[in-house]
Design a protein that fits this description.
Blueprint (H helix, E strand, L loop, with lengths): L1 H22 L2 E6 L4 H12 L5 E3 L9 H7 L8 H16 L6 E5 L7 H9 L3 E4 L15 H13 L6 E5 L3 H10 L2 E6 L6 E11 L2 E11 L2 E8 L4 H16 L4 H9 L9 E4 L5 E5 L5 H13 L4 E7 L8 H15 L2 E5 L4 H9 L7 E4 L4 H9 L6 E6 L7 H7 L6 H4 L5 H4 L2
Parallel strand pairs: 1-3, 1-4, 2-3, 4-5, 5-6, 6-7, 11-15, 12-13, 12-15, 13-14
Antiparallel strand pairs: 7-8, 8-9, 10-11
């Protein structure tokens, strides 16, 4: 099986490189440890409004996913005939006369060397660096968080001559590392020292129900209001700022970027606001979980108006030796902002421990076993009431979208609104 995967990766990479050689698109590569997909989607939304562009679908960010994105194909999964179709479409892409002028590609790393293997042949024109916190996800197979940071920066090392790096300047460690590797660095973030700054972040409401996020983008004395509907959280502020930075580099003004993002529909499972049963509201962040992203999500829960705040949190995976401390840290934050904490999974028991240590009462905590996300949702639905706001978050394999399905007002719309609703995931 490993040989077949290596063969598929080799053939896909060969076709992708030939497509890049044939069509010579401009490449924007997005990496980091938090917010890659959201940022990639925001950059694409800002740029595709005025030029021919393609983005990585879903989270196609591996040595398999990046070539698929370049070829414009979906994965063949375990179907040999489907893979033959992928290779045929790749050959067609090499020969066709029309191809996007710009590619916005997500590049990730699970193990040392993952990014470098892709970056050596991808050689992007621009790199967007989101954030690499001190307690990152995917650190399990790295010696330290610093080793993961170096892996992310290998994408910058492989940029083409004259390339530009757009970096979240609020992450000082990441900014320092990028400045050591690149000549042109443009910063974005919420601190006033950044080239492009976000400010006045707030939540939009309709009849006391959260409807979206509003803030301002500031650059060289200019200030533009922006609204992103249907979502919450600081991650969307950072994503919009990155989009504004890249857009400006491509000749777009802040107003044009704001107008483009107004039409943007963020992907499922990433801080999406959904209507829950019995007059409740769901913050669906079930796509995946890292310590930093979970803390951001809890901060959003803390800020939202609610009669009762409920946090449903599951295991955060691939943290290695940082796992115990990370889960306890999340528990401490949950105690500060949730009236009810529900945990799913054996690692998430440490979230409950952290919450108890921070002063949360035992009566405020419910715990479920590893594969009981559906049961947790079913039992939560029975006790929801009008004005409740429920945050749902956990690592991909914890399948926390099943919690959301049990408590959403329109479960028949799950294929449209929830993450992991294709056949390959449903049958797992």
């Amino acid at each position: 099986m490993a040989f077949l995967k290596q063969l598929i990766v080799f053939l896909l990479t060969l076709e992708a490189r030939l497509v890049l050689w044939r069509h010579k698109p401009e490449i924007v590569a997005v990496t980091g440890n938090v917010g890659k997909t959201t940022t990639k989607d925001a950059v694409y939304a800002a740029l595709s409004s005025f030029m021919s562009a393609r983005k990585s679908e879903k989270s196609y960010n591996s040595e398999l996913g990046v070539p698929l994105a370049i070829l414009g194909s979906a994965s063949g999964w375990n179907n040999p005939l489907a893979w033959i179709g992928v290779f045929v479409r790749g050959a067609v892409a090499m020969l066709q006369s029309h191809y996007p002028k710009l590619l916005v590609l997500e590049v990730g790393a699970d193990r040392p060397g993952d990014i470098l293997r892709v970056a050596r042949w991808l050689r992007p024109h621009m790199v967007v660096m989101t954030s690499v916190p001190k307690m990152p996800v995917h650190v399990e197979f790295f010696d330290s968080p610093e080793a993961l940071l170096r892996e992310k920066c290998s994408l910058v090392k492989c940029m083409r001559s004259g390339g530009v790096v757009f970096v979240n300047g609020d992450d000082v460690r990441l900014l320092t590392a990028c400045r050591e590797e690149a000549r042109q660095v443009i910063t974005y973030g919420c601190d006033s020292t950044n080239d492009i700054q976000g400010s006045h972040e707030d939540i939009e409401y309709a009849h006391d129900v959260p409807k979206g996020l509003r803030f301002r983008i500031n650059r060289s004395g200019a200030s533009v209001p922006i609204t992103i509907s249907g979502v919450l959280g600081r991650a969307y502020v950072y994503a919009a700022l990155a989009a504004a930075a890249v857009g400006e580099n491509k000749g777009r003004d802040l107003v044009s970027v704001a107008e483009a993002l107004l039409q943007w529909v963020p992907p499922p499972g990433r801080m999406r606001i959904l209507e829950g049963t019995r007059g409740s509201t769901i913050i669906d962040d079930s796509y995946n979980a890292s310590p930093e992203a979970t803390l951001f999500a809890l901060d959003a829960l803390k800020k939202v108006r609610a009669k009762r705040r409920i946090a449903v949190l599951a295991d955060m995976l691939e943290l290695g030796k940082l796992s115990a401390d990370a889960h306890r840290t999340v528990g401490k934050m949950a105690a500060e902002c949730a009236d009810l904490l529900i945990t799913v999974g054996f690692r998430a028991r440490l979230i409950a421990e952290g919450a108890l240590d921070a002063g949360m009462g035992e009566y405020q905590i419910q715990q479920y076993e590893q594969f009981e996300s559906e049961r947790a949702g079913r039992e939560l639905e029975k006790e929801l009431s009008e004005g409740d706001v429920v945050l749902v978050k956990g690592s991909e394999s914890m399948r926390m979208e099943r919690v959301v399905r049990e408590i959403m007002a329109e479960p028949l719309r799950a294929p449209e609104l929830l993450v992991r609703q294709n056949k390959e995931w449903i049958t797992r």
